[in-house]
């Protein structure tokens, strides 16, 4: 894991703080508004171009892990997200929608890094990536419309258009780029000229989008700092409950240690960039929803880094009183 990846939470916070300061002191809000969505769309295309669907066949080797991850990500987590929003954010509809968007979108990128750090089964983790992406593409509108309740106030057509723009378009562009690059060079050439550069674009584009978001909505953030702090409680509950449930189920089903790590990471990590892009596209007149989604990674990334050490597969020489 590179230094930039380890410090991602810090850089997201710095981008938010810098954007907030710039938005309050300079008249850049209207211009920043037009930066957010394009930066997120290019970032998602860069993420998707690194995705190799050839890994999908590996899921057959760990059917129990796959079933458990699908149940946790697409049944248990949406129910938990609804309960946390209704129970802790009942009077704050925009925060409820933001929390829901964040929690029902399983991660499709950085969980691989933390799985590798914790010595999980990275092959199966990579195989689950396209599966999770396709399922969230299909199910996210359903979750939001069914679980958003009166707080949602968006029609199905608008939400479908947002999902189409934010997920399908970048995915189609990424598949076209991968197809074209496969015709022009071998795997090494693609790594040097396509997937490698795409990977290096992701974090700068994320920081650019976060900076622009806070510059654009500086006044909104300032007026709702207390509301945004209220998100920390449901997020903290989520990031405690999910790892505990994942570890408990993996022990109950006697998964190997590396698969236990994989299950924990793939069900704990969330896809805040996709959720943020959908919020910007689907709710342009409710900026607090998108701003709320930036809070997620500030808590999530340190949690994943800590979790990678807690559930890490121990080699014989490392084993003491703590085991994976």
TrEMBL record:
It is a multi-pass membrane protein. It holds the Pfam family SBF. Belongs to the arsenical resistance-3 (ACR3) (TC 2.A.59) family. Keywords: Cell membrane, Membrane, Transmembrane, Transmembrane helix, Transport. It comes from the Bacteria. One of its GO terms (cellular component) is plasma membrane. The keyword Transmembrane applies. Its main location: membrane. This is Arsenic resistance protein. InterPro entries: Arsenical-R_Acr3, BilAc:Na_symport/Acr3, Na+/solute_symporter_sf. It is found in: Cell membrane. The keyword Cell membrane applies. It comes from Nocardiopsis eucommiae. PANTHER family: ARSENICAL-RESISTANCE PROTEIN 3, ARSENITE EFFLUX TRANSPORTER. GO terms for molecular function: antimonite transmembrane transporter activity; antiporter activity; arsenite transmembrane transporter activity. The lineage of its organism: Bacteria, Bacillati, Actinomycetota, Actinomycetes, Streptosporangiales. The chain crosses the membrane at residues 35-53, 65-89, 95-114, 126-146, 158-177, 198-216, 228-249, 261-283, 289-311.
């Amino acid at each position: 894991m590179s230094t930039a990846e380890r410090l991602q939470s810090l850089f997201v916070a710095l981008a938010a703080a810098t954007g907030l300061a710039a938005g309050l002191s300079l008249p850049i809000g209207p211009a920043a508004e037009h930066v957010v969505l394009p930066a997120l769309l290019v970032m998602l295309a860069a993420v998707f171009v690194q995705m190799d669907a050839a890994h999908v066949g590996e899921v057959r080797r760990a059917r129990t892990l796959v079933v458990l991850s699908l149940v946790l990500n697409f049944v248990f987590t949406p129910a938990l997200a609804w309960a946390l929003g209704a129970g802790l954010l009942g009077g704050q509809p925009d925060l409820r929608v933001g929390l829901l968007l964040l929690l029902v979108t399983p991660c499709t990128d950085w969980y691989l890094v933390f799985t590798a750090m914790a010595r999980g089964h990275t092959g199966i983790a990579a195989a689950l990536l396209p599966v999770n992406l396709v399922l969230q593409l299909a199910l996210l509108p359903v979750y939001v419309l069914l679980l958003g309740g009166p707080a949602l106030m968006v029609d199905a057509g608008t939400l479908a258009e947002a999902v189409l723009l934010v997920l399908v378009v970048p995915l189609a562009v990424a598949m076209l780029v991968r197809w074209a690059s496969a015709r022009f060079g071998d795997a090494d050439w693609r790594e040097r000229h396509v997937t490698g550069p795409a990977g290096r674009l992701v974090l700068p584009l994320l920081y650019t989008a976060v900076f622009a978001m806070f510059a654009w909505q500086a006044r909104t953030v300032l007026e709702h700092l207390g509301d945004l702090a209220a998100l920390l409680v449901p997020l903290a509950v989520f990031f405690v409950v999910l790892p505990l449930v994942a570890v408990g189920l993996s022990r109950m089903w006697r998964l190997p240690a590396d698969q236990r790590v994989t299950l924990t990471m793939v069900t704990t990590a969330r896809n805040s960039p996709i959720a943020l892009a959908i919020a910007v596209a689907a709710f342009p007149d409710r900026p607090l929803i998108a701003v709320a989604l930036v809070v997620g990674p500030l808590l999530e990334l340190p949690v994943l880094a800590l979790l990678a050490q807690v559930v890490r597969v121990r080699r014989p020489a490392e084993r003491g009183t703590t085991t994976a």
